Amino acid sequence: GDGLILQMPVPDRPLESEWPETMEEMRACRREAGLPGDVGFEARLTLDLERSPDDWRETVRQWQELGASHIGVRTIRLGIYGVDDHLARFALASDALAEFMT
Q1: What's phi and psi for 66, nearest 5 deg?
Q2: Where are the extended beta strands (E) located within 1-102?
Q3: Residues 36-56: tens digit of each pLDDT
Q4: DSSP state, 47?
Q5: The pTM is what?
Q6: 77 vs 37, 65, 74, CA distance in Å?
């Protein structure tokens, strides 16, 4: 394929998990198929407040180091109720992650 959207649980610290090896395996399979090894993919970030915005930035940095071209952010299953609360969390993330937005 020409891209990847991760549909499984993803770690907060992908460089400290099995993901570097998993991504290299995928790149090797693509090269064996005659495709470029690098492929864009979307990782996810959960905007929980148990972790600081600095932690969020580190998670994004690590995913980008692994080659992520997109980061999806999520606020579900965090005990947030109502549209305004979700939008407030997204606003916090927008400020915290501004350096990564292009």
Answers
A1: -80, -5
A2: 4-5, 41-46, 70-74
A3: 888 888 888 988 888 999 999
A4: -
A5: 0.84
A6: 35, 27, 9
